Amino acid sequence: MSVREILRMGDPRLLRVAELVDRLDTPELHALIQDMRDTMAAENGAGLAAPQIGVNQQLVIFGVEHNPRYPDAEQVPFTILINPTLYKLDEENGRRLGRLPFRTRHARCRAALQTFAYTGVDAAGNSIDRTVEGFHARVVQHECDHLYGVLYPMRMKDMRQFGFTDVLSLIRTCLTTKFSAFRVNSRLKKRQS
Prior knowledge:
Blueprint: H1 27-42, E1 47-49, E2 59-64, E3 76-89, E4 96-99, E5 115-121, E6 127-133, H2 134-146, H3 165-192
Antiparallel strand pairs: 1-2, 2-3, 3-4, 3-5, 5-6
């Protein structure tokens, strides 16, 4: 099929609430899913939501086997998830407490839920019902946010932590090295006095 253009922040189409998919197992839906797979693969992505390519429908795909962008991430099975619902779980017994309102969920940048359940259907209408945690949970939360017009910077508490990974890592390394050197120098000065 084809690789589609991914919309960038600032495009108002990313801020819309996506519409439910009402027709399953159609040639058009399968073509869209293939385009999304091609686009996700071209970007080395872990997931993609239809609104990210300008299609205002509740459809996300995700999956990770070996991805250079996420070298330490556990594997996530490739999934086509249509019209998803997320559920918060009771910490004691794992029972579903009810539908998870998106306004109270937080992306990776704000203590993302570590465990939750999600339901939906695949392209043929087969039910999907999973309880997930860790990286799998983060990917699903992030992609489902796109269905509600929520971009991850909107979830950030501290915009000072927003930036390119390589730059932020370099700054953390420099700060850690400087702080460690400062502590060593302080201890040496105390011993000398």
